[in-house]
Design goal:
By secondary structure, the protein is an all-alpha fold. Helices cover about 75% and strands about 0% of the residues. It contains 11 helices and no strands.
């Protein structure tokens, strides 16, 4: 791919990232992305033959950003596995709440289901980090299953918090107690000294 082609491809993704941040996942049409990028409505098809491929490229950006935040959170790896899972959970929830449009796009089943779009290449390593930490925190369990259940729990906390449902139901004004409860449920109560 030539430099101008790579530049336009990147610009289309960047415009999509901005659009999803401003207006949500539902605003991500090929026509609107092309309009905002200043190109013809057919131009995106040269780089992204399907709408799903463009959406996948935009979602990949979100997974990369979340992955970088997670990596910097547990960078030196000196904290206990439980502390690292806690930090990852906090990063995950903060990302979901700060980036609702991107978060919604990142977990669209139609994007994740298709392996040829490459989204799994960025999403699965992040889950692998969680699996590793859960396995170190709870060597007595199937780490993939417990990590999956924990992730589902955090995903639910993020969605319900964003909708205001958890605040109403629990009276909580911060998601930290919910994060702690989810970790206790999946990893066991934190050891006290």
């Amino acid at each position: 791919m030539s430099e101008p082609e790579a530049g336009l491809r990147g610009r289309l993704v960047d415009v999509g990232v901005e659009l999803v941040a401003q207006e949500g996942a539902q605003a991500l049409t090929l026509r609107e992305i092309a309009r905002r990028a200043g190109v013809s409505h057919g131009a995106p098809r040269r780089y992204f033959p399907t709408h799903l491929e463009l959406l996948s490229a935009i979602a990949r950006h979100g997974f990369a950003e979340l992955g970088e935040q997670a990596k910097s959170t547990i960078a030196d790896g000196t904290a206990s596995p439980r502390a690292q899972v806690t930090a990852l959970g906090r990063v995950y929830l903060e990302f979901a709440l700060a980036n609702p449009g991107m978060y919604e796009l990142m977990f669209r089943h139609d994007l994740l289901e298709s392996g040829h779009l490459g989204l799994r290449d960025t999403s699965l390593p992040l889950f692998g980090v969680l699996v590793d930490l859960v396995g170190r925190a709870r060597p007595d369990v199937d780490a993939r299953l417990v990590a999956g259940a924990l992730w589902a729990n955090l995903h639910g906390v993020a969605q319900l918090w964003r909708w205001g449902s958890l605040q109403l139901a629990t009276g909580a004004d911060d998601f930290a107690p919910l994060l702690r409860s989810a970790l206790d449920a999946h990893l066991g109560p934190e050891a006290t000294r």
